[in-house]
């Protein structure tokens, strides 16, 4: 069983958020990706539509998650299931950094409101 040490994780930054990729093809994962997200206070990520299911678990902090137009206040310990084709936006209105753990399958793409397609490097 491969073990990914914190020093092996690859850090990416996008839209003011830090993504620390632990399980990716480059670390030996064949089907799934997993990363820790660090969302600073005051961050508002742009809405995007995802091509694959994501499981978003909040480890610390509080977030506002808009999912297909409905906004949910999510606190530490909550899990959000995001289905393929759903539109997602994340905002941290709190005074501290929120920390999440997210999993999805390889091949995830996100489409921004302007039509820009993004293949997040932490899922590739």
Which secondary structure elements does this structure contain, and how are they paired or packed?
Elements lengths: L9 E5 L2 E7 L8 E8 L8 E3 L3 E7 L1 E6 L2 E6 L3 E4 L4 E5 L6 E8 L4 E3 L4 E2 L6
Antiparallel strand pairs: 1-2, 2-3, 3-10, 4-9, 4-11, 5-8, 5-10, 6-7, 6-9, 11-12
How can the largest sheet be summarized? 6 strands, antiparallel
Question: CATH superfamily, please?
Answer: Jelly Rolls
The CATH topology annotation reads as: Jelly Rolls
Strand order of the largest sheet: 1-2-3-10-5-8
Number of helical elements: 0
Radius of gyration: 14 Å
Question: What is the total number of structural domains?
Answer: 1
**Would you tell me the overall average pLDDT?**
95
CATH-derived architecture: Sandwich
The fraction of residues in strands falls at over 45%
Uncertain runs are: none
Say how many strands there are. Answer: 12
Shape: globular
Cα-to-Cα separation, first versus last residue: 20 Å
Looking at this protein, list some descriptive labels.
mainly beta; six-stranded antiparallel beta sheet; Jelly Rolls; 124 residues; 52% strand
Structural summary, described in words:
With 124 residues, this protein is an all-beta fold. The protein has one domain: Jelly Rolls. The protein has no helices and twelve strands. It has a six-stranded antiparallel beta sheet with strand order 1-2-3-10-5-8, with no helix packed on it. Strands 7-6-9-4-11-12 form a six-stranded antiparallel beta sheet, with no helix packed on it. A hairpin with an 8-residue loop joins strand 2 and strand 3. It is globular. The chain starts with 9 loop residues before the first strand and ends in a 6-residue tail after the last strand. The model has no long low-confidence stretch (mean pLDDT 95).
């Amino acid at each position: 069983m491969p073990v990914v040490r914190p020093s092996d994780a690859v850090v990416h930054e996008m839209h003011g958020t830090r993504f620390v990729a632990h399980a990716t093809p480059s670390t030996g994962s064949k089907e799934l990706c997993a990363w820790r997200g660090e969302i600073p206070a005051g961050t508002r990520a742009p809405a995007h539509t995802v091509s694959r299911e994501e499981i978003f678990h909040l480890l610390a902090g509080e977030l506002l998650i808009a999912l297909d137009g409905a906004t949910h206040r999510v606190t530490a310990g909550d899990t959000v299931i995001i289905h393929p084709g759903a539109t997602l936006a994340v905002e941290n209105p709190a005074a501290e950094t929120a920390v999440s753990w997210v999993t999805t399958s390889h091949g995830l793409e996100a489409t921004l409101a302007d039509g820009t397609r993004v293949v997040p490097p932490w899922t590739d």
